[in-house]
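Good day; I would like, with your permission, to put a structural problem before you. A protein sequence and the structure tokens that stand for its backbone fold form the material at issue. Thank you for your consideration; the sequence and its tokens are set out here:
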Amino acid sequence: MSNEPRLDFPMLDSTGSDYHSWVTDVENHLTSKGILPIIQAPNPDLLFNRTSTKHAQAVILMRRHMDKALRLEYMSIKDARELWVALEERFGNVQDSLLPDLKVQWNNLLFADFKSVAEYNSEALRLQSMLRFCGQPVTEQELIEKTLSTFPVSAIVVSKQYRTEVNAGRITRFHQLINIISVAEKHDNILVRNYNSRPIGTKSVHEANYNAPKRGRKERNSRNKGHEGRMGPYNRPNQEGNRKFGADTRGGNATRGRGGRGNPIRGNGAIARGGGAMGRGGGANPPRERPQRAPQLKGGNHNDMCHRCGSSEHWFKQCKASEQLASRYRAYRDLREQEVYLAEEEENGGDVNLTMEDFKAEDEVHKDAADFD
């Protein structure tokens, strides 16, 4: 634990700079204990019993709030009145040494030098108290004039407005001016904070899905809502493309179930007892025919054309064209293949010798073949 004594007010140092406030604190504490007359001059009209106990209480209070150097210097004094007079003789003329420095501080006091109104108010009141202690009191008008004449240049318009209020008699006390300036400072800070919160012209945007409806578990399950919501590979209606569609009839087998792979259990040429391939206690569903894929329209992939008649409306197995049309389409394809072959030979630089008979034969083929382009 620390050996420092418990202090009720600031300690008096050896320079005596705060002697005036120390004197006030000591007198207040002695008054609260009812022994203030112990440090005052004897008064015959006042009935007060000066006992050693009261002297000890006053001395202990003063010594506990003195600097260590002062305690060593006055350690032999046990009379409270004697100690009080000794300190007064030593620091009683401290006003003479403090006054020049206080005057310099007062002249250099500027409202524009402080970051906030509260800091300026505290310093102005401290100087007013110190000057009053030194016998140089500062009036309310001097405080008001000091404040208005030291405003920053950027707030000169505001200073003129406050001076107008003072001249009109609506502001007569220093604390009234400080209160008005403090309120204006609060509003200015709010304005600056709102201005710097985000760039001009922008708007705060809520985070993603801020206004999205919150659905429950049952609503998120699309199976309970008749395939509503987002369509996936497993929750689309019964149509081609659904992985579950036709799964129970793939390969001619029934749906797999407990007790088998879906094929009937054969035994002596008959189906075993149990009713089918769905497993224990169930029958197989009748196989459903797998729908044919819808044919693509014209202009689709060339591989989907009918190789018999050249139509893109159906495939080779569903072709119902006549033999005459089919033979003409074959002749047309052969001709196109010859043209492609000749074009490739020309590109390769081959020597091609054509005669009139070649063109006559080509004309006859063109007349026999239908126009399939």
In short: Confidence is low (pLDDT under 50) at residues 244-255, 259-279, 294-300. The chain is about 45% helix and 0% strand. The CA atoms of residues 74 and 223 lie 97 Å apart.
